[in-house]
Amino acid sequence: MLEKQDEHILAQLQREGRTTNQQLAEDVGMSTSACWRRVRALEETGVITGYSALVDREKAGFTTSAILHVSLERHDAKFVDEFVSRVTARAEVLECFATTGDADYHLRVVVRDMKAYNAFLDEFMFRLPGIRYVRTNVILKEIKTSVALPF
Asked: Is the predicted pLDDT of residue 28 greater than 90, yes or no?
């Protein structure tokens, strides 16, 4: 369980990841040395897993985004492990979730255009062993996209 000060630090870092330790300490009401120690502890325990820039996918040229619903024919470890290994290695796959319901997995995929999406399906997804079906929902408009947890 996180302490309140840790939650304040994480909330602020989610809003502005490039903030200095001094500014972060001021924002959360701590000394700079205490703030630095808490941030280091959050990194070392794996609560903070890394830092990155948020990029507007359309402005970066990735105009097509889709949610894929994937079901496997078999659920033996061999097929599941190969599916997970190959899917996680693909840069187009931003997220992959093992889920309940009709599909075994849901993937969020981004590509430059529909031609690239078709190639992704034909050259990768449809060639994975053990796939029963792949259904696609093309994202028409992103209403809300966030990676910030609700502290």
From this structure: yes
**pLDDT by residue (tens digit) across 29-40?**
999 999 999 999
Cβ proximity of 139 and 67 under 8 Å: yes
Q: What is the DSSP letter of 100?
A: S
End-to-end Cα spacing for the chain: 13
Domains of the chain: 4-45 (1.10.10.10), 58-138 (3.30.70.920)
Residue 102: half-sphere exposure toward Cβ, Cα within 13 Å: 5
Q: Which residues pair with 131 in a beta bridge?
A: 72
pLDDT in tens, 113-136: 999 999 999 999 999 999 999 999
Choose among 3, 94, 69, 84: nearest CA to 41. Answer: 3
For 76, the token pair is: 């033996």
Task: Please work out, in degrees rounded to the nearest 5, the angle formed at the alpha carbon of residue 105 by the alpha carbons of 127 and 52.
Answer: 95
pTM: 0.89
Residue 69 buriedness (CB in 10 A; 0-12 / 13-18 / 19+): middle
- CA-to-CA separations, 93 to 7, 16, 121, 151, in angstroms, rounded: 29, 26, 12, 27
